[in-house]
Design a protein that fits this description.
3 domains; 5% strand; Rossmann fold; globular; mainly alpha; Na+/H+ antiporter like fold; disordered C terminus
């Protein structure tokens, strides 16, 4: 008992310290958990050497993650993605498996059965790592994010046929085609029953629970839904994670979706952290250091080879190069189900000890590299999609010609809804402006007054120069990307330190950073929206309108120094007028 308590204490201490350091250095928390697993696992301090109980708990990390992902995907959306799931996902897995089989068979002298076993394992990508990173980066519903999730869903579905196929490969007498046919029929039947029953009962069950007005009961019922559906698919021979994903989709069609997502998040993060610890426990650092040359080749073949396959499939699916590269980076690593398949292949004697050790180590290292690769490629493709190609000589020339002759104008960076509204106000005051945007659809929405809209990225110095930064009267950053806004601010302050720059921000968390970068004033959308909602609430509750607006003016006077005199004078004059009327 004391030993278990001490191990738990060390695990939590190491997790807290490592996650703190990861956040401090702006690294993904996944790396911290993996590092804890290496340090405390059987190949490190051996504090968590007996990992069976830890692994059984950690498995629910992927279960809760897939439930959370299911909350983001409704059944109609999944139906719309069916060609993506089975087309893109099937092509990726088939080409990766066949390519790996050929490389293993021809290049390394292994049998085709061994090559196919390794190929099926390497074709799997990490749902836990990629889905968590996409969720944190708000990219689940980007084009690359949808493609990646479609491939990951197909891989989850393909786990069961692979688990049947590997023993059949080890037994030449078996009939794999018949076994696979039974498995597909069983999977389709189980999922159809779950979806059919769930669509008719999930909303009613949650309504009954919600009527009890018990937060404890609501959370317990949500946990029951996750575990029950995961157990149902597991008992039918499918993966736990697949049942949890179906459960999330069913809940997503109810009005309780957002409350369920908030309740499940703490369980997901804790269990998922433990899962990554168990993955780190599998890496033998001594073996890595002793076989560095073979491992380096294996990792390169895995990451580059698999990434190339995904890139080619994505390009064949008529994606732009930047989207194809992001999708490639998001899938160019091994996955947790691939580790399961490699373990089974080793037990079935399809692969030898040396192949098993090298392959598993390469898979784990690729999972370590995944967060860095995804981040790096995301930055690179961000420059591609908004950068160099968009700012060739013709683009710069068009902006310079369009802004020729303008003086003391306003530069509006971003011409979405906020930028267009700002343009209307400037037009109303007969003030000239130049708007810059990287979305061709926004550029086509030309203003009717003295404003001009051009295609161009304002975080490029040559674009700002062509837009007449040296002659401009003010600059407004109207897009919500804080990182890009900081880049624009630094460029502006290099040549125009005195010019007023007004910046739009999504919330208060980025105000200090933007002001430090040089913003004259930062307008948080959340603050303005909350002021309007608060004013409407007080008015509906019978609070006099003058008193309500006085509170709003006071809040704005404290928040915006440049408008402080107006709000205070306006408030005092209105108060005097009210007193006179009395």
């Amino acid at each position: 008992m004391h030993s278990a308590s001490f191990s738990l204490f060390l695990l939590l201490t190491a997790a807290v310290a490592s996650v703190f350091l990861a956040r401090f250095f702006r690294l993904p928390a996944i790396l911290a958990y993996l590092g804890v697993g290496i340090a405390l696992g059987p190949h490190g301090a051996a504090i968590l050497a007996n990992s069976d109980s830890v692994e059984s708990v950690a498995e629910f990390g992927v279960v809760f993650l897939m439930f959370s992902i299911g909350l983001e995907f409704s059944l109609p959306r999944l139906k719309a993605m069916r060609s993506l799931v089975f087309g893109f996902g099937g092509a990726q897995m088939a080409v990766t498996a066949v390519g790996t089989t050929l490389v293993t068979w021809i290049g390394f002298g292994q049998g085709w059965r061994s090559g196919l076993a390794v190929g099926l394992a390497l074709a799997m990508s990490s749902t836990a790592i990629v889905a968590k990173l996409l969720s944190e980066r708000f990219e689940l519903h980007s084009r690359s994010g949808r493609q990646t999730m479609g491939v990951l869903l197909f891989q989850d579905l393909a786990v069961v046929p692979c688990l049947i196929l590997l023993p059949a490969l080890a037994d030449p007498v078996a009939h794999p085609a018949r076994a696979l046919g039974v498995a597909f029929f069983q999977a389709a039947l189980v999922l159809s029953i779950l979806i059919w029953v769930g669509q008719r009962t999930m909303r009613r069950l949650y309504d009954a629970v919600a009527r009890q007005r018990s937060q404890e009961l609501f959370v317990l019922f949500t946990l029951w839904v996750v575990v029950a559906l995961a157990y149902a698919t597991s008992a039918a021979g499918l993966s736990l994670a697949l049942g949890a994903f179906v459960g999330g989709m069913l809940v997503s069609e109810t009005i309780y979706r957002h409350q369920v997502a908030a309740d499940i998040r703490p369980f997901r993060d804790i269990f998922l952290g433990i899962f990554f610890v168990t993955v780190g426990m599998m890496l033998d650092v001594g073996f890595v250091l002793g076989s560095i040359d073979r491992l380096a080749l294996a990792v390169a073949l895995l990451v580059v080879g698999k990434g190339t396959v995904v890139l080619l499939v994505a390009l064949a699916s008529r994606n732009s190069l930047d989207v194809a590269l992001r999708t490639s980076a998001q899938l160019a690593q091994a996955g947790e189900f691939g580790l399961v398949l490699m373990q089974l292949a080793f037990e079935q004697k399809l692969v030898g000890t040396g192949v098993f050790q090298v392959t598993v180590s390469a898979m784990l290292i690729s999972m370590f590299l995944a967060p860095f690769l995804i981040e790096r490629v995301s930055r690179m493709t961000g420059l591609m999609s908004r950068g160099d190609w968009a700012h060739k000589a013709k683009v710069i020339h068009d902006i310079a010609v369009g802004g020729f002759g303008l003086d003391r104008h306003v530069i509006v960076c971003g011409y979405g809804r906020t930028g267009q509204q700002i343009g209307e106000f400037l037009d109303g005051e007969d003030l000239p402006f130049i708007a810059l945007d990287v979305d061709p659809r926004q550029v086509r929405r030309a203003p009717t007054g003295k404003g001009k809209v051009f295609f161009g990225n304002p975080d490029r110095p040559e674009v700002l120069k062509a837009a007449g930064l040296a002659r401009a009267r003010a600059l407004v950053i109207a897009f919500p990307d804080v990182t890009a806004a900081e880049r624009v601010l630094r460029l502006v302050r290099q040549s125009r330190p005195e010019m007023p720059v007004i910046v739009r921000a999504p919330d208060d968390t980025s105000v200090a950073a933007l002001k430090k970068a040089g913003a004259t004033e930062v307008i948080p959308e959340v603050l303005e929206a909350s002021l309007v909602v608060a004013a409407e609430t007080l008015t509906q509750l019978g609070v006099p309108l003058e008193r309500t607006m006085a509170q709003v003016r006071a809040m704005r006077a404290d928040r915006y120094p440049s408008l402080r005199a107006y709000y205070r004078d306006s408030g005092s004059s209105r108060t005097e007028k009210a007193e006179t009327l009395r």
